[in-house]
Known about the structure:
Its EC number is 2.7.7.60. InterPro entries: IspD, IspD/TarI, IspD/TarI_cytidylyltransf_bact, ISPD_synthase_CS, Nucleotide-diphossugar_trans. Belongs to the IspD/TarI cytidylyltransferase family. IspD subfamily. Keywords: Isoprene biosynthesis, Nucleotidyltransferase, Transferase. This protein is of the alpha/beta class and 229 residues long. The protein has helices spanning 31-41, 57-66, 82-93, 115-128, 169-181, 190-194, 216-228, and strands at 2-8, 25-26, 29-30, 47-52, 72-77, 102-107, 130-136, 141-145, 148-153, 159-168, 202-205. The protein has a single domain, classed as Alpha-Beta Complex (Spore Coat Polysaccharide Biosynthesis Protein SpsA, Chain A). The strands form three sheets. The chain has a seven-stranded mixed beta sheet with strand order 5-4-1-6-10-7-11, sandwiched between helices. A two-stranded antiparallel sheet has the order 2-3. A two-stranded antiparallel ribbon has the order 8-9. β2 and β3 (29-30) form a beta hairpin. α3 (82-93) crosses α5. The longest helix is centred in the middle third of the chain and has 14 residues, at 115-128. The protein is globular, with a radius of gyration of 17 Å. The relative contact order is 0.18. Bound molecules: cytidine-5'-triphosphate and the ligand C[C@](O)(CO)[C@H](O)COP(=O)(O)O. Residues 82, 107, 161-163, 188-189, 212, 214 line the site of ligand LQXTBERG.
Amino acid sequence: MNIAVILAGGTGSRMQSKTPKQFIKINGKPIISYTLMAFEQAELIDEIVIVCLDDYKEHIKTIISDFKISKFNSLISNGNTRQQSVFNAISHIKNYAKDDDIVLIHDGVRAMIMPDMIDKCVIETKKYKAVTLAQKTKNTMIIAKNGQISKYLDRDFIYNVQTPQSFKFDIIYNSHINAINSGNTDITDDTQIVMPYYNNIHIIENDLPNLKLTTKEDIMLFEYYLKSV
Ligand SMILES: Nc1ccn([C@@H]2O[C@H](COP(=O)(O)OP(=O)(O)OP(=O)(O)O)[C@@H](O)[C@H]2O)c(=O)n1
Ligand SMILES: C[C@](O)(CO)[C@H](O)COP(=O)(O)O
């Protein structure tokens, strides 16, 4: 079974909006609906688990119904951090998943994700057990200290990490237990959680737009993107 965990449990503080960013409407549709539709359309996804703020659970149920998200399976309460939100979801999934099942974790606010890329994550996880989408940097990369360049980095080794991040269930679950036992509760990325437990994470290069909508400027970029597709 291939299970998608869609994270919609953050408050979006950097967006500085009253409404949590995943529920902001763009072209009349909430941001989270674009993400859910991509996972609904991905051929290899069997079910969708959504992590949501308690105050928005009724709201997301309406979105699930309005956008006919037939793969929706469960709604899970968020944690205080992204890491805790993911753990809440995988603790629920543990009740029925097998070790060999695949769990994809996706930021609900990466709303440009394409169904084909989601399916590619599933296919590659069967081969590599742990994968993430990532985009190779297209820029000259530097380290700067006190406003001055101190070092140039080899761009061939620099990537922006994206989601989905996809894992065999036993790997993601045991990695989270390991992280908690090491005292970590606020790691913002699941590959960082998995690395100490399973350091063989495969990168799927993605050059398609997959912006994490984080600040107000990103909303304008998303509006522009929607006009062009
Ligand atoms: N406790 C949390 C924190 C984040 N997320 C989700 O994780 C994704 C990526 O996180 P980020 O962009 O950092 O979202 P926020 O935490 O909401 O934003 P900010 O850091 O600006 O407050 C988002 O879809 C967000 O809803 C979550 O489910 N639970
Ligand atoms: C997993 C992730 O999308 C990696 O880019 C993560 O959500 C990033 O969180 P950030 O704290 O907003 O960089």
